[in-house]
Amino acid sequence: MQWIDIGANLTHDSFAHDREAVIERARQAGVVQIIVTGASIDSSTAALELTRAHPGTLFATAGVHPHHAASLQQSDLPRLRELLAQPAVVAAGECGLDYYRNFSEPRTQRQAFEWQLRLAADCGKPVFLHQRDAHGDFVALLREHRVNLAGGVAHCFTAGERELEDYLQLDLSIGITGWINDERRGSHLGALMPRIPGGRLLLETDAPYLLPRDLTPKPATRRNEPMHLAHIGAVVARARGQSAQQCALETTAHARALFGLPDLS
């Protein structure tokens, strides 16, 4: 079985000492391609650099997370456009709104999000989306720009039925992480899995975050890795009433279609 991790923060400092080993462990676990998440101009640049050492296997996103929206100036947009023009950069983001932490003012977040939606439309690349406690404003901006966008994924979906239906109506894909493996916070997600069409479901680890709680034996550290994607996929498959192989086939095919990734088979 082949799996694709559509969101891993491999430029994170926690991977500095063994990044190549992490990538190799993922490969041995059947994770054949990984999209490295960019969350700022600097981390997007680093993600792109990492892809150059692993052509065809690693890809990147380029964008500014809402936590860092205050750091994005209009003068930065040409650099972001340059990053998005690179073939190895397959999506714009991580971008969106986060009113839970409000590390940047909501108005500033909305401006940064709108800039990035316009850049994504101009570059013809899908958007890699983040939303927390900002659903109304998030959906309103997406509805305004959706007709010009080449698709998008609601990254790390953890919400409920209403949010899922809104995203599906916007023709967005849905990214599922190890949150579904958390019996404390993610138990509601299982019932929603059959409602996601096969051509809209994507899987991601969000490594080093969101280590699946039900791994056995328990890892020595709380750091998540892309090698755990198959474990997440198995839980998603059971919730959907399908085999892990079918889940892998569907999610891999959709990731390649949405992000334009090469088929390695």
Q: In terms of topology, how is this protein built?
A:
Blueprint (H helix, E strand, L loop, with lengths): L2 E6 L10 H10 L2 E6 L4 H12 L5 E5 L14 H8 L4 E10 L7 H18 L3 E6 L2 H11 L6 E3 L6 H9 L3 E4 L12 H4 L8 E3 L25 H12 L3 H16 L6
Parallel strand pairs: 1-2, 2-3, 3-4, 4-5, 5-6, 6-7, 7-8
Question: How would you sum up this structure in a few lines?
Answer:
With 265 residues, this protein is an alpha/beta fold. It is built from 9 helices and 8 strands. It has helices at 19-28, 41-52, 77-84, 106-123, 135-145, 161-169, 189-192, 229-240, 244-259, and strands at residues 3-8, 31-36, 58-62, 89-98, 127-132, 152-154, 173-176, 201-203.
Which tags fit this structure?
9 helices, TIM Barrel, globular, 8-stranded parallel beta sheet
- The CATH superfamily appears as Metal-dependent hydrolases
Rg (C-alpha, Å)? 17 Å
Largest sheet: 8 strands, parallel
Helix content: 25-40%
* Tally of discrete structural domains: 1
Mean pLDDT level: 97
Topology order in helix (H) and strand (E) letters: EHEHEHEHEHEHEHEHH
**Poorly predicted runs of 5 or more residues:** none
Strand content: 15-25%
Helix-and-strand structural type? alpha/beta
Find the CATH topology: TIM Barrel
Work out the helix count.
Answer: 9
Strand tally: 8
Distance between the termini: 11 Å
